[in-house]
Amino acid sequence: MTKDDCYQLGHITKTHGVSGELVLYLDVDDAAEYADLESVLLEVKGQLVPYFIESIAIVKASRAIVAFEEIDTIEQAERLIGSGAFLPLDNLEPITDETRFYFHEIVGYQVVDAEAGELGTVRGVYAMNAQDLIAMDYQDKEVLIPINSDIVRTVDRVNQKLNVVLPDGLLAIYMEDDVKETPEIDGDADETNTDED
């Protein structure tokens, strides 16, 4: 199974205790839905490897303490820190609500602004602590669009379009030249300016 067949559930952040338990950050809307998880695919050296779960306890909205079968020491656990945790796409229930979407499903969709029309293509989504962002390719630049209901209005799954209302000036910020202007110098560089009364 490859990443193309999966979605990222989260990642391992650190060890917990000395018996091989780990802290799993869950990048999901409702962590409680994964309280009965039996197995997960962890990315180890670029490969997805199945790990069976001995116990899982949701301790915060986005954190779980997980004990995996055959991971019994802190040394074994430390090797898994930083590993992405994945589940097969088949595990996801389809969303029919046009105002909601899974991050992975909109990659490749056309972004359509209510005023400007078709803009560019969704290249990916950055799941951030403060604000999730859609990365759009627009005129050979990456434009980041905040994900909230005021900006991202609906998703058209049939036509693979994401309907948005971008804030005024958002595109202009990314279209400004990256080249820093150098101040102009009047006269010769060797000339020194002296004031004589």
Outline the structure in words:
- This protein has 197 residues and is mostly beta strands.
- It has 2 domains: 3-91, RimM (Elongation Factor Tu (Ef-tu), domain 3, Beta Barrel); 103-175, PRC-barrel domain (SH3 type barrels).
- The protein has helices at residues 74-78, 170-175, and strands spanning 6-16, 21-26, 39-44, 47-60, 63-68, 84-88, 110-113, 117-126, 133-138, 141-146, 152-156, 161-164.
- The protein has a 6-stranded antiparallel β-barrel.
- Strand 11 (152-156) and strand 12 form a beta hairpin.
What is the CATH top level name of the largest domain?
Answer: Mainly Beta
Globally, the shape reads elongated
Helix content: under 10%
> How many distinct domains?
2
Per CATH, which architecture of the largest domain?
Answer: Beta Barrel
Secondary structure class reads: mainly beta
> Oligomeric state of the chains?
single chain
**CATH fold label of the largest domain:** Elongation Factor Tu (Ef-tu), domain 3
Beta-strand proportion: 35-45%
Arithmetic mean pLDDT: 86
**Count of distinct strands:** 12
- Radius of gyration based on Cα positions: 24 Å
| Sheet with the most strands, sense and barrel status | 6 strands, antiparallel, barrel
Distance separating the two termini: 84 Å
Element order: H for helix, E for strand:
EEEEEHEEEEEEEH
Q: So, the CATH homologous superfamily of the largest domain?
A: RimM
| pLDDT < 50 stretches | 189-194
Helix tally equals: 2
The order of strands across the largest sheet is 1-2-5-4-3-6
